[in-house]
Amino acid sequence: MLRIAAAALAGTAIEFYDFFVYGTAAALVLGPLFFPTFSPVAGTLAAFGTFGVGFFARPLGSVLFGHIGDRHGRRPVLVISLLLTGASTVAVGCVPTYDTIGVAAPVLLLVLRFLQGLGLGGEWGGAVLLTAEHAPEGRRGLWSSFPQVGPAVGFLLANGVMLGLSAALTDAQFSAWGWRVPFWAAGVLALLGLWLRSSLAESPRFLEIDDHARVPLVEVFRDHWRLVLLTGGALSAGYAIFYAVTTWSLAYATERLGVGRTVMLSCIMAAIVVKGALTPVAAVLGDRYGRRPLCLIGCSASALWMFPMIALLATGAPLLMFTGFLGSMLAFVTMFAVIAAYLPELYEPRVRCTGAAVGYNLGGVLGGALTPIVATALADQGGRVPWGVAAYLTGVTLFSLACFALLPDTRPVRVPVAEREPEPGAVAKATTG
Fold first, then answer.
1. CB environment 204-243: b (16+ within 10 A), e (fewer)
2. Which of 94, 77, 85 is nearest to 133 (CA)?
3. Count of H helices and E strands in the chain?
4. How far apart are the C-alpha atoms of 386 and 367, rounded to whole Å?
């Protein structure tokens, strides 16, 4: 289990590194380099638009790779998705800017960002299911949380590289070539991930399936459409909060408040470190008390915290901004630490890879793709404290809370020892012993 979980964690870390490094670059440099004819705000909106394309591609990736995962196994998904995401990320670092090739530059960005999203849409389902279906029932939440730590590690890698380059290079050097280095580094990380995953065994639960779904997507939407919509709506809050903290706030503080890149990246990364460290802790609580109760608690806490977070961000003071981000990440991890165990348990094994991945990535479209764009537009219309952003985020969390309330709990019913049926042969063994 430790080897499987470690390989899943490493893979998701690498793939989310690829995904997050684009978001950081979009907040810092892609607007002026690829949309120079736009105003600063419009350029940021356009850069976030290319960022959002990756989220719209993720459900398509979950359909494509979910089909492979449900028909041919979870393991092939991990290899193909990692190759696709890694190759497209390296290619982003090689795209010439608008000044060199004109409008072809942002078009290439869009295409490569779409391929990034396609690969990541398959990654999560394969990594989570391979871990969850190997894990013992009583510790499924704990072991499944390993791939959920991957996004935090990937974010820290992406922003750590950006932070180091930002501190070591001048603004001119960073804009000229420094921002490309993290994208090129993705190639090395992809090779490392392929090596780690080369010896993984197929999921035993998949091998037990006798009658595989011919077209998993058709079965999911015929028999589980309500679950897909509810899980997508429920998870949208987590995505909205995460990308409001990690992407939109970075652009807002550096452009509107005059906070330095290094300061902002440090504040955000510190909050993500705490979030990553607490993920297994929250997952253990999910094993003990159930997945859905923790989701309801985390979503409720998020709804209460959005206005304070925006107020703290607007101060521009590093300690206060960190406090705002930390509160958001604590609420976030309470929800998302248990999702890797919760979503697969909602779907039957023959369509589990497709159902869980489509629901998860639908939440990404609703929360992750739109939040940086909507928040940037709302902040541009407000004063120093963008209360409109706080209202938007609160609305998203309340919507997700309603969806979580309609989902079933999957916690197994624990039968007292005295009431359990004896195992076959147990009486015979006792008498012959």
1. ebbeeeeeebeebbebbeeebeebbebbbbbbbbbbbbbb
2. 77
3. 21, 0
4. 18
Short-list 221, 328, 210, 212, CA closest to 267 = 328
Give the residue ranges of DSSP H helices in 137-260. Answer: 140-168, 171-176, 181-197, 204-207, 216-223, 225-243, 249-256
61 burial (CB, 10 Å; 0-12 / 13-18 / 19+) is: buried
What the block records as the tokens of 39 is: 């105003």
Which fold is adopted by the domain 2-409?
A: Growth Hormone; Chain: A; (1.20.1250)
Please give the Cα distance from 184 to 171 (Å, whole number): 20
Q: Residue 160's CB: how many other CB atoms inside 10 A?
A: 14
pTM to 2 decimals? 0.80
Please give the structure tokens belonging to residue 327: 């509160």
pLDDT digits (tens, 9 = 90+) for 237-291: 999 999 899 889 988 998 888 998 889 989 999 999 999 999 999 999 999 998 9
Mean pLDDT of 60-76: 83
Q: Which of 167, 234, 190, 256 is nearest to 404 (CA)?
A: 234
Residue 28 to residues 40, 80, 358: CA-CA distances in angstroms?
11, 30, 30
Under DSSP, the state recorded for 180 is G
Distance of CA 149 to the CA centre of its chain: 10
Q: Which residue reads 């996004």 in tokens?
A: 151
Query: How crowded is the C-beta side of 398, counted as CA atoms within 13 Å?
Result: 8
Q: Answer for the pair 84, 114: CB distance below 8 angstroms, yes or no.
A: no
Name the one residue in this structure whose structure tokens are 């440099």: 29
In a 13 Å sphere around the CA of 111, the CA atoms on its Cβ side amount to 9
Q: Two tokens at 259?
A: 């906070």
* b/e burial code for range 38-54 (CB count within 10 A of at least 16 → b): eeebebbbbbbbbbbbb
